Amino acid sequence: MNQIQNNRNVDRQDESNGSPKSGNFEHAQSTSASTVKSKSLQKQKKNWFIIKVLIALFAWAILFISTSSKNMTRADTRLPFVDEHSAQEDQIPLEEETMLSATVAGLEKGNIYFYMYDHPNITMAGNVWNTRRRYRHFRTLEGANDKQMLEALAESPLRTFNMSNADLFIPPIPMANILCSSGGNFNLPMQTLSEQEPFKKHKGNKHVLISTTFSLYRQHYRSHTGMKPWYDRMYNMTVVQSWDPVSYHNALLHHKTLEWGDYQSNGVVDPSLSRRSVSVGLGANNKDLKLCLASVDKFHNSSNFVFYQSRTGPSVHNSTIYRHAPMTIVQDNGSFPKSSIGWGLDPEAWHSEYTSSKFCLMIRGDTSHSHALWRSIRVGCIPVIVSNQLPVYAPMFKSTLNMSDYAVMLDEKDLLNDPRKALLKLDNMTEDEIRVKIKHLAFAQRVIFTDHPRSLFVPAFLKEAVLAPEVL
After folding, report:
1. CA distance 249 to 370
2. How far apart are CA 467 and CA 387, in angstroms?
3. Which of 191, 192, 186 is nearest to 226 (CA)?
4. Residue (of 240, 101, 218) closest to 172 by Cα position
5. How much is the pTM?
6. Averaged in consecutive runs of 10 residues, what is the pLDDT profile of the chain (472 residues)?
7. How far is 30 from 61, CA to CA, in rounded Å?
8. What is the pLDDT of residue 50?
9. pLDDT at 42
């Protein structure tokens, strides 16, 4: 009886657990196998979890070691921008070095192609130019710069002789020679250009005219040159000038917060005579001033602290007080560092003193811009710009260069209030600050000068033409 009762109790227990009545051997064996398989899967999942954790820890360790290594060697990292400078001179902040390298790489890639017209009526090749005396300085300065720019473009591998492959079209009209010569006539080259198929197809757009002579493409002189009947017909062209009339005009009309001071009236009455403009600054003849490659060694070996030579005559737009302000330092009783400041030098001494100076002043004059900036960059001297409106009025290759990178921007009022104190601040620049300025100055030389041994002028010029602002 007890045995029977026990069997019933087992049966009830099996039923209460939701399983059939025990005693079936095959079922018991199946249940046992299922249990073993379940435990095995759980064990495998656990093992995979451990493996994943180990992999994650290993990856984290590799990342930590790699990051630590980069941080330890970052100060010694070099990017391929520098050419003629020593390794020590190349040590500028990594971010700036990276940006410079990227800019250089973009220019060296050179993917903008142009067609240059060669029609004799456009090039005016073979003409003999008799320069009028009153315009002589235009031809020897801006005119010479126009010529050397056109010569560099003519020899560039970015020039295509297939019009259909061209992004831009350049008519090499000798604008300065025509303006400065007695009997010079713009009608023949302009009429011939207007009859060319690409010009008619694009209605003057995509055409780039080099004309940095200051008397051309200005409202004030519009009625006094032979270009008068052509300004409207050539309006769609991009005109390369010594200043940026389009940006200046746009700033006056649409940026009311900008202060233009003594030059305010110029912009109000001078709307741009072209739809787009490119500014390359007031240039001159490369042959008149030797190119001195900028370097830290040159800076430290220069005997003059500051270079500034000016004329005694007055300047318009209230600029005389600014241009004469540094002369008070001449009477300084020897406490100011050795400098070349005065009312002019003979050509030989001028060249020697200019090329042997650490800082070179560029002070506003009849206009916001001056040849002094071009010359300072040319001789590898850090420019000190005293012209508050210059970055908008006449930037140089602004799509590639930033003036404040390679020059010291000195407020006009600071120079006027205390010239000595304002200029002595230059002596407080740290070695790192000087290295950065020199680095950017060396780059500016490659962009601006056609005779630089590693010139980037042509691709930088084409970049400016493509990105030229339009009249708003």
Report:
1. 20
2. 25
3. 186
4. 240
5. 0.80
6. 41 36 40 45 52 48 39 32 41 83 95 98 89 72 95 98 98 93 90 98 98 84 83 97 92 74 60 93 96 98 98 93 93 83 96 98 94 98 96 96 98 96 97 96 98 98 97 90
7. 47
8. 55
9. 54
pLDDT of residue 443: 98
Residue 148 CA to its chain's centroid (Å): 21
Cα 31 → chain centroid: 79
Tell me the HSE value of 62 on the side-chain side, using a 13 A CA sphere: 6
- Residue 383's nearest CA partner among 304, 441, 452 is 441
Q: How far is CA 27 from CA 36, 308, 332, in A?
A: 14, 108, 114
pLDDT of residue 183: 78
> Distance (Å, rounded) from C-alpha 335 to C-alpha 209?
50
Residue whose structure tokens are 């070691």: 65
**Taking each helix axis from N to C terminus, what angle separates 94-109 and 457-466, rounded to the nearest 10 degrees?**
90
414 Cα distance to chain centroid: 27
Dihedral over Cα of 309, 396, 203, 220: its sign: negative
pLDDT of residue 44: 54
Q: 3-state secondary structure string, the chain?
A: CHHHHHHHHHHHHHHHCCCCCCCCHHHHHHHHHHHHHHHHHHHHHHHHHHHHHHHHHHHHHHHHHHHHHHHHHHHHCCCCCCCCCCCHHHCCCHHHHHHHHHHHHHHHHCCCCEEECCCHHHHCCCCCCCECHHHHHHHHHHHHHHHHHHHHHHCCCCECCCHHHCCEEECCCCHHHHHHECCCCCHHHHHHHHCCHHHHHHCCCCEEEECCCCCCCCHHHHHHCCCHHHCCCCCCCEEEECCCHHHHHHHHHHCCCCCCHHHHHHHHHCCCCCCEEEECCCCCCHHHCCCCCCCHHHHHHCCEEEEEECCCCCCCCCCHHHHHHHHHHHHCCCCCCCCEEECCCCHHHHHHHHHCEEEEEEECCCCCCCHHHHHHHHCCCEEEEECCCHHHHCCCCCCCCCHHHHCEECCHHHHHHCHHHHHHHHHHCCHHHHHHHHHHHHHHHHHHCCCCCCCCHHHHHHHHHHCCCECC
| Residues 247, 250: Cα–Cα separation, whole Å | 5
Q: What one-letter code names the amino acid at 268?
A: V
